[in-house]
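Exercise 7. Given the encoded structure of a 249-residue chain, write a plausible sequence.
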């Protein structure tokens, strides 16, 4: 018996990193999982590794038409959603003096607008008792140089979980924020090239962590499974940190 047997899930940005690990764990626990991403080759590769209970839909969360098409596909294929993980997100380094309007727009469009309209447009499909998980970050609780815009999007997302938990409680829908610390993913590896003589970013990040290492995507997926399953039936509006103690210790 899997913890998500018979459940229908959606993971946006499910082709690499944390999203792929969550999709993999949900499928292993018995769910059918729709996963999205913008790049078709990465989507095809992810579906190939996950097997027949994974359904790939090429879709950009910042395009509302694409979200409409995504949910029309889910409606036709499964008729409902029991778990939604609004995971798609991007981040680029820019110190305050370097922030451009385009940097602001593209980051907020994917992280905040994408999360809001993913969950809004999922509403008609959400079963009573469904679980919604939004991806915040330890950055929402910290001041990290060169991460003004990214961190602001993640702080906004943390509040989306509180507000939607209040709005959707009447339908028994739980909404929680998952806040990873540094996790070894393509997104983190691509964040900053090491300067000469410097170690790779994951190594440098590990120094700041009480557990002295950065996390693995499957460790975030385990927390997502808790929030997705009935194991967290009395948990809503919460923020679950998977951060090696970064903002706790
Ligand atoms: N890794 C960490 O240390 C960390 C820490 C805290 C929070 N987070 C959050 O966790 C989430 C996943 O991070 P990650 O490190 O796993 O990132 P990642 O390795 O860069 O993967 C991001 C995923 O999102 C997809 N994506 C990006 N923009 C999209 C868009 N507009 N529409 C649909 N899909 C899109 C990507 O595919 P395409 O590029 O093909 O679209 C990919 O599947 C993000 O929200 C991130 O902010 C990560």
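Solution.
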């Amino acid at each position: 018996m899997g913890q998500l047997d018979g459940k229908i899930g959606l993971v946006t940005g499910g082709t690499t990193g944390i999203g792929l690990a969550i999709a993999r764990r949900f499928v292993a626990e018995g769910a059918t999982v729709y996963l999205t991403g913008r790049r078709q080759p990465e989507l095809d590769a992810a579906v190939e590794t996950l097997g027949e209970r994974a359904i790939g839909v090429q879709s950009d969360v910042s395009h509302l038409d694409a979200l409409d098409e995504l949910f029309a596909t889910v409606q036709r294929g499964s008729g409902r959603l029991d778990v939604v993980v609004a995971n798609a997100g991007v981040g680029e380094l820019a110190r305050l003096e370097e922030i451009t309007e385009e940097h602001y727009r593209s980051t907020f469009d994917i992280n905040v607008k994408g999360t809001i309209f993913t969950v809004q447009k999922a509403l008609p499909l959400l079963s009573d008792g469904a679980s919604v998980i939004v991806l915040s970050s330890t950055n929402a609780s910290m001041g990290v140089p060169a991460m003004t815009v990214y961190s602001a999007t993640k702080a906004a997302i943390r509040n989306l979980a509180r507000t939607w938990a209040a709005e959707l409680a009447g339908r028994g829908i739980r909404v929680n924020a998952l806040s990873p610390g540094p996790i070894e993913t393509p997104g983190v590896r691509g964040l900053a090239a090491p300067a000469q003589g410097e170690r790779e970013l994951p190594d440098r990040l590990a120094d700041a962590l009480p557990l002295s290492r950065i996390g693995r995507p499957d460790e975030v997926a385990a927390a997502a499974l808790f929030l997705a399953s009935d194991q967290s039936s009395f948990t809503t509006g919460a923020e679950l940190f998977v951060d090696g103690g970064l903002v706790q210790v």
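Remark. The helical segments are 17-28, 40-50, 64-77, 101-122, 148-168, 186-189, 201-206, 217-228. Students should compare their own answers with the one above.
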